[in-house]
Every structure is written in C-alpha cells, then in structure tokens.
Design brief:
The chain is α+β, with helices and mostly antiparallel strands and 90 residues long. Helices cover 33% and strands 33% of the residues. It contains three helices and four strands. The protein starts with a strand and ends with a helix.
Amino acid sequence: MLFMVIETFRNGDALSAYRRFRDDGRGAPDGVEYVGSWIEASLNRCFQLMETDDIGLLQQWVAFWADLVEFEIVPVATSKEVYAALESKL
C-alpha cells in the first residue's frame, strides 16, 4: 500500500532532520520502502511517498522522527489503479 507522508519540520528546523538523515539514514525498518520525496521551496515541509503492507512498520518509522517532524499520513493509490477500479462505471 502507498502512503503520502506530509512532514512538517518542528519549529521550522529542517537542518536538524537533515543532520539525522546524514548521520543515521532514513530510519525506516525493513518492510517500509521509500518511493520518492519532494521538499517545499520554503523548506518547511517534505512530501514522501512510502510503501508498506504493514502499518505498524510505518508507525515505527514515524516514531524514529517524531521529535523532529510532525506527520500527516494519507493512504493513496495511483491514478492507473483508480481508473482500473472505476472503469466499469465510466
């Protein structure tokens, strides 16, 4: 399952998050796959697409970053998947 993870850096402090990433890596447990990410031009938020079949593993990853980042997590599907699911109704 795909998840759009919207991260807001606590106190607008992106540098602390990037330092941890440099020193410790992404911190995602086995079974949570990084797909891609985009950073807001203001450096206030990061948008990451993550994939896992185990929401508990995603929660472990969130806990690794929770002191530096606030999270909004949205389950998503690709447009191709949604189109295929709705095609018979179109």
